[in-house]
Structures are given as structure tokens and as C-alpha cells.
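User: Hey, my collaborator sent me this sequence without any context and asked if I could get a structure. I don't really work with proteins. Can you help?
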Amino acid sequence: MDYNKLADLLFPQVDKTPEYWEEKFPERNLPEGAQVTRMAPSPTGFIHLGNLYSSLADERIAHQSKGVFYLRIEDTDAKRKVEGAVETIIEVLKYFGITFDEGAGIDDPKQNAYGPYFQRQRVEIYHTYVKDLVKKGLAYPCFCTEEELTEIKNQQTEEKALTGYHTKWAKCRNLSYEEIEANVKAGKSYVMRLKSMGSEDKEIIFQDTVKGRIRFPENIQDIVILKSDGIPTYHFAHAIDDHLMRTTTVVRGEEWLSSVPVHYELFHALGFRMPKYVHTAHLMKMDNGSKRKLSKRKDPELSLDFYRQDGYHPGGVKVYLMTLLNSNFEQWYDKHPSSPIEEFPYSIKKMAQSGALFDIAKLHDICKNEFAKLEPQEVFDFLKNWCSTYQPEMMKVYFADDEKFMKVINLCMGIGGKRRRKDFCYAKQIFESLSMYFDETLVPSYEFSYDNELVKTILQEYLDGYDHNVNASEWFNALKVLAEKHGFTADMKAYKADPEAYKGNVSHIAEMLRIAITGSSNSPDLWTINQILGEEVMKKRICNVIEKL
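Assistant: No problem. I've predicted the 3D structure and written it out in C-alpha cell form, which is a compact way to encode the shape of the chain:
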């Protein structure tokens, strides 16, 4: 067959050659050893923890080597595209501190020298390479209908043969030029397929950067490379794009391992050098004593929206994911707790080969540690930004008085004390823990360990003798006097030696006040809380409790 003539029949509008695109997108001028990585999501509107997990690895590999990290949008499947999804991807990753050197969302053409970065805008490029494959006898049009393909699959199932479009089952593989021409002129719909050169009895040896050497049977499937609307399939488009964008390292989930034989053949058929592949382990979780993959359907924590909506600090999430990505990160971070994680010498060789176990309890511990490292102003800004986005109706409650809110943060973080408290985990939990400081969110309690009449008497006498201007030591001395008056003791040693001799000790008096003022038996320093609330609010709360009792 005259393949040049066939190529012109199928692609008369294509006037460029692969050499044109090779010249337009030359090898990048980067330092020796610099890596070019990419994030290439589909615009489906769902961006998950695995995306962040991989993009952290991509970003570290690229920037640690003084290379380039870019964003490409793989939008070949129009049915799955969600309006605004690209903006969501960029916004969500920006929240977690992941930024790109070039690609989708960047308007500067000088930065975007290897674009366009949306696959549907690169159709001319893909057609050039498909035409070239036709000229080489490595691609052909397939006119099979859905019904015919279903019939082939049914026959294969009946004969217990490998399903798919391959070998003797590839009906259009050996059509003559005349047959193809007649079908095209008759307006028959067709796709373009790769003419596989693979053999059922041969293997390829694939070198994965994490998993090492892996053997696969050669691909024998004549896969679709262009759909009937002229848009490429993912497999074909990604090979062209990774080559022309000069990608050196591809980080992707291990679910793509099964596609390696197809990608291996595509790169070789196109005459491209394959990038290095890093197939990351699945994120797993324990479920009823056994491990399973995190599931979009079962596990809300798989979605990155979960972390934004609940207000996890991006620094904590990133530190946690780094513990999963590199086995030696925790040891390094223990020695360098104040160092930015960007200083960690990231190594592909230290990535896990098997499923990484996602542990939300450990994530929470790390988040508490990271919050404790922040300056109060940083915590204030983070909480205010989160509240304005996710609880805007509460802004007038929490942030009516910025000075008051800052005092609350200082108290709850233990600023000025011997060590920082580690109570803050994520924004939603933090605001719930701060409810006692605001009348609008206070949940009062009337559950006391002592008789209501005694509690009312003590609360009233506390109010009668209260002086808002005394210091913490003087305030506590007044509590001791109140305790002694009502049969409690201020001598903790005496109480410990003979608890039956007293109604209780001064801490039980403080607990009554704490419950009346904060609605909880546990809180930070009560004198400081009184100073933050102010005398009027504090007295009003106690009066309300007395009235209820």
C-alpha cells in the first residue's frame, strides 16, 4: 500500500511535519540533572489527596534539581469536563502551597513557551504525528461500529480469547487503500488505531524508578489513538505532550502500571525517548482490621475539599504527606523541626513501594504540632481567612473585636507560658473549642458536683466580693478565703491526707466558677478568661446560672 497516499487521504489539512514541532519545542535550556515534572489532571471537578501526594513529589523533584514543574490539563474526555474545574484545581493546590512554573492558569507567554497546556488546544500537533504514523504503516482507520465491536467481544468471550481489538480480530487492520477510500468517501465514521507490532509470546522489561525492573507482556492491542471527532485518546496525547514539553520524570499512581506496555509501544513507535516513571503506592487505610484503598465513595478524607472545608492548615497536611512520601523524612524533621520542608533532601529512592497507610490520627498529631509552631498572628490570619470563606455569618461574632480574639489565641496557645499548648488541630475544631469566649456560641452548663443551693451561695458570694482589678494571685487568694468559709480547704496536702474532713478543696470552688463562666469544667486559666471576657460579661453569665439553678 502507498502509505503516503493514505496519509494524505486521511489528513489532507495537515501541512506540518514532526520536525516542525520538534524545532518549535526544543530541548529545555536547564542545568545538568534538572528534572521536568508535571501535574496533568482531568478537569472533572474532583481533586483528591492522591493528586496532592503526587504533586508534592513532582514539585520537590523539579525544584530540588533546579528544574521545571508545570500544569497540563488533560481534557480529551469532554463528557467528564466540569465547568470551572481548572480554576478549582489551581485554587486548591495554591491553598496547599503548590505553585507551577508554567502551564494552565499562567498568562505570561514567556513562561508558557511549551504550550498550549490544554490538550484540546493541541489537536493540530496530534494530527501531525498520527499522519506520520500512517506514513510509516503504524496507524490505520477503523470503521467498525459499536455493534461490530460488541460482536467481536462476545465471540472472544465465547472462545475464551483475550478481549480487545488485536491480531485476527482487528477487522480493519488490513483494509486496502481502495476499501478505505470508498468508506471515507461514503462518509463512514472512523477512529484511528495504532497498528501494534507486539507479539503475544514476547515481553518488555520496564525500569520503574521506585519499583525497579518489571516484566510485562508486549502490547498487542491496536488501541484507538484518535477518536471519531479527531480528539486523541489519553494514551496517545500524553506521549506526545510529555515528549514535546520535554518531561523527564512522570509521577503517577500505581494503577497506571497496567498501561505501561501500551505507553512503551507508543513511545517507541513515535521514536521518542521515554521519561523516567515513578509509580507511587496507593494511599490505604485500615478498615475492620484490613487495609484497603482510600475510596472516593466511602472516604470523605480523600477529597482535598474535606481539608479546606474543615480548615486544616496546609503546612500540617504537607508535613504529614511528606512522612508518607519519603521514609527518612520524619527522622530529618525531628532533627530540623524549624526548617522549611523544602530544605529536606527529597529522594525518589526513599519512596514507598507498597501501599502507604493513611492515618488521620497521626495527621491530627502533626497538625497540632505545626499549629503550635505558628506565631499567634499567623494563626489569627489563617482562622480569619477560613471563617470569612466557610462561616461568613460568624465573622461578626468572632472578629467583632480583633484584639479580643488575639488574646484568646494567646491564651489557648500558651503564649507566655513555659511551653506552647498543642490543642489546635484544624479551624472547625478550633472554633468549636473557642465557643466559651463568645456569648453567641456559649453552651451553658448547669451540671455541678455539689448541691445547687451551695453552688448558688458560693457563686453569689464570689460576685459580691469580686474585684476585676486585682492580679491573678490576689484573685486566687480570694477564692481560698471563700473556700475556707464554706468548709472547703485551701491546703491541698491536708485535703489529700484526710479528704473526708472537708467538703472539698479550693479547686472544687474554682470548678464551680469555671462551669458557670465557661460552660465547661475544663478551660485555660480562669483569671485570664475573666480578663478577656470583661467584668460585665463574666458577671452576667454567673447571674444567669444562679437564676437557672
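In plain terms: The first strand starts at residue 36 and ends at 39. You can pass these C-alpha cells on to your collaborator as they are.
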